[in-house]
Amino acid sequence: MNAMTIVIGTICILIIAYRLYGTFMATKVMKLDDSKITPAHELNDGKDYIPTNKWVTFGHHFAAIAAAGPLVGPILAAQFGYLPGLLWLLIGAVIGGAVHDAVVLYASMLRKGKSLSEVAKEELGPIAGFCTGLAMLFIITITMAGLCIVVVNALSNNPWGTFAVGMTIPIAMGVGIAYKKTGNLKLTSTIGFILIMVCVFVGPFIKDSALGHLLTLDPKTLSIILPAYAFIAAALPVWLLLAPRDYLSTFMKVGVFAVLIVGVLIVNPHINMPTVTKFVHGGGPVIAGPVWPFISITIACGAISGFHAFIGSGTTPKMLDRWTDIKAVGFGSMLMECVVGVMALIAATALQPADYFAINSNPEVFKTLGMHMDQLPALSKQIGLNLAGRTDGAVTLAVGMTYVFRHIGWFAKLAPYFFQFVIMFEAVFILTAIDAGTRTARYLIQDFFGDLYKPLKDVNWMPGSLFAAALSSVMWGYLLFTGNISSVWALFGVSNQLMASIGLIIGATVILRVADKRRYMLTCLVPLSYLYVTVNMAGYWMVKNVYLNPLSKGYNLLNGSVSIIMLVLGVVIMVTAIRTWIKMWNSPRVQLDSKAA
């Protein structure tokens, strides 16, 4: 199998899906109508609710949802071979992820941009709302800490990456101020993009300078700086930092993968990983479980991800200028993220299997596989960094992308710089999600605890906003600093896909209420049926075989307890939803529009 075939086939499938299925969802299922006012206009406060250009919102939304998931997940899932991951990415994104993201965004906008827990409370009742809010607090805290671990590993003792990533903050703020004053999006975004690229290329020259020594930070220092930055990003007006930074970061994200696509089309590397490997039945060195259900747990972002529900019911619904923008921002962003996931899969599977397993396995485990590294030792020597045993997925992507371009003669001299650039690029990729995720957690905390103290419900109340932003940053910052989330990546997958199931449950409820034909509810029920069974099977497998198994290296009572709580919350929400659906089905149709919400 050649990579070109996969790339061309993927792009064609996703374009057709957007044109046909995306249009069907927008016009028939959700009945998007631009004559109705959006929450951004209705509640415009110049801080959180701000009508925003569609492509700026698209940039923010894509940057926020496309974090570590579409990069790391497909790389880890390459253990099973290239075919399982490819099929799940394409089927999951079209049938599940794009639908999930669009309907969650739609449901939140119908309820004036409220968080998913508030939407669940109004659609399914107080019990489901409480369970959804509690599950979301668990999930967002774990997810933010987990995302930051990858960033800490990428920026630790890396002044080049720290400088380039850090400079995106003042540049974004300058772009936000300039755009607000001039309204000239093209000029301000072009200048901002040029400045970011200048910082990227200046980075190597500051490495040995006084500034470089100042920016050479250890993991503990970064573990304090990142939550502090997230607090500031969550408290500032969205137009000042969050939206312009994510918008500018999108240029880099799309640009890097566009270059990778062009490189694949020119070089057309061979996919060296077999169609399926012997590890599809379990016992692999990267993922212990079998291909099902773990292919759908390992690959979340890129196919379907519950983290997207935080963004789709957090920042984005407060920014959309028109209702029809949901198609491009919700449905379209997910399909673009699928392309990112497929390219990451290609980067991993283009490696020789021995090199792939050498990077993604502990050295002791790799010795038991009976494999011998191919080109990895030479690349390690060229870069000046031992690449074996770096199991977080980030290094595999950088190595894989470097391998794709190594066939171009003049590229050999640039390989070390390109490798470091990709590492830095991944850090930027993830930090944009941390910005939006912490801000979304702020909204969630204000909604959840606002039932106990009413002023917290008001997102414009400054003390409440600062309290919620600080509490969110402290919760996940504590986990990051103390390192209490080791061995938790599978827990990320289970909790993340459980969140996606909750998003589809709420989406199905809203569609049952508003759609002209009740059978349109199947657009959510079909992916929900698969995902709900899958996540419960994976959760049960992890609890039984890993978290509560004293003989397992991953034995962890905390992870086991959290997993059980998550699954129980999911059962309560599902049972409540089924009872609500039966009641709605047997009652006269009562439709909900944006004015009545």
Any overview of this molecule?
The protein has 24 helices and no strands. By secondary structure, the protein is an all-alpha fold. It is 71% helix and 0% strand.
Secondary-structure blueprint of this entry?
Blueprint: H1 3-29, H2 39-42, H3 54-65, H4 69-77, H5 82-110, H6 116-124, H7 126-155, H8 159-182, H9 185-206, H10 210-214, H11 219-235, H12 242-267, H13 291-298, H14 307-312, H15 325-349, H16 353-360, H17 363-367, H18 376-383, H19 394-405, H20 415-449, H21 462-482, H22 489-514, H23 522-547, H24 557-585
Helix pairs in contact: 1-5, 1-15, 3-12, 3-15, 3-20, 4-13, 4-15, 5-15, 5-22, 5-23, 6-7, 6-22, 7-11, 7-20, 7-21, 7-22, 7-24, 8-9, 8-12, 8-20, 9-12, 11-20, 11-21, 12-20, 13-23, 15-19, 19-20, 20-21, 22-23, 22-24, 23-24
Summarize the structure.
The chain is mainly alpha-helical.
| Main beta-sheet annotation | none
Shape: globular
* Total number of strands: 0
Mean pLDDT, to the nearest integer, reads 83
Radius of gyration over all CA atoms, rounded: 23 Å
Oligomerization status of the protein chains: single chain
Helix share, percent: over 70%
| Helix/strand/pairing category | mainly alpha
> Whole-Å distance between the termini?
51 Å
Strand content: under 5%
| Helix count, DSSP H or I runs of 4 or more residues | 24
Q: Poorly predicted ranges (pLDDT <50, ≥5 residues)?
A: 592-597
